[in-house]
Amino acid sequence: MAPPSSAALRLLDIRDTPLSLDEVFTAVRDPEAGGIALFVGTVRRVDDGLAVDQLAYSSHPTALDRLRDVAARIAAECDVVALAAVHRVGELEVGDLAVVVAASAAHRAQAFEAGRRLIDELKTEVPVWKHQTYTDGDAVWVHAD
């Protein structure tokens, strides 16, 4: 496995504007990559059996630094060509893109492994929270999932 390169970290952001699949996909395209794994998280209508009325994501000021740390660690531990991850904050509607991550590698198994780690570790380690209001009026704050 080659040593990690900061060049592998192509696009990492947390933003309050709509996300683009094309932007993330393009960020990890590379002539050295034979496989690209792309994950898209969207706002769902029902969560834990309850109908969602409103949803907003918030992030801690250190969230982007934590995202960079997570991506750098994965680039160092996985045989990847490139990584990209963008998470949305602010008010979102059902069907909106909440997070898009991508990993490219020489082979599909490596791309799948790195992409899976990137979304899983982003969700557990990057301080982004979801405030969800249900149609029955109840509301909860949860770590984004």
Structure overview:
By secondary structure, the protein is an alpha+beta fold. The chain has a single domain, classed as Aldehyde Oxidoreductase, domain 3, CATH 3.90.1170.40. It contains three helices and nine strands, in the order βαβββαβββαββ. The strands form two sheets. Strands 3, 4, 6, 8 and 9 form a five-stranded antiparallel β-sheet that branches. α2 runs antiparallel to α3. The longest helix is centred in the last third of the chain and has 18 residues. It is elongated and about 50 Å long. The mean pLDDT is 94.
Secondary structure layout:
Layout: E1 9-15, H1 21-28, E2 35-42, E3 46-47, E4 50-59, H2 63-77, E5 82-88, E6 90-92, E7 97-105, H3 108-125, E8 128-134, E9 139-143
Parallel strand pairs: 1-5
Antiparallel strand pairs: 2-7, 3-4, 4-6, 4-8, 5-7, 8-9
In a few lines, what is going on in this structure?
With 145 residues, the chain is an alpha+beta fold.
Structural category: alpha+beta
Mean pLDDT: 94
Please give the CATH architecture: Alpha-Beta Complex
Domain module tally: 1
CATH topology, anyone?
Aldehyde Oxidoreductase, domain 3
Discrete helix count: 3
| CATH superfamily annotation | Molybdopterin biosynthesis MoaE subunit
Name of the level-1 CATH class: Alpha Beta
Radius of gyration computed on alpha carbons: 16 Å
Order of helices and strands: EHEEEHEEEHEE
Strand percentage: 35-45%
Number of strands: 9
End-to-end CA span = 31 Å
Low-confidence stretches: none
Helix content: 25-40%
Q: Sheet bearing the most strands, described?
A: 5 strands, antiparallel
Q: Which outline best applies?
A: elongated
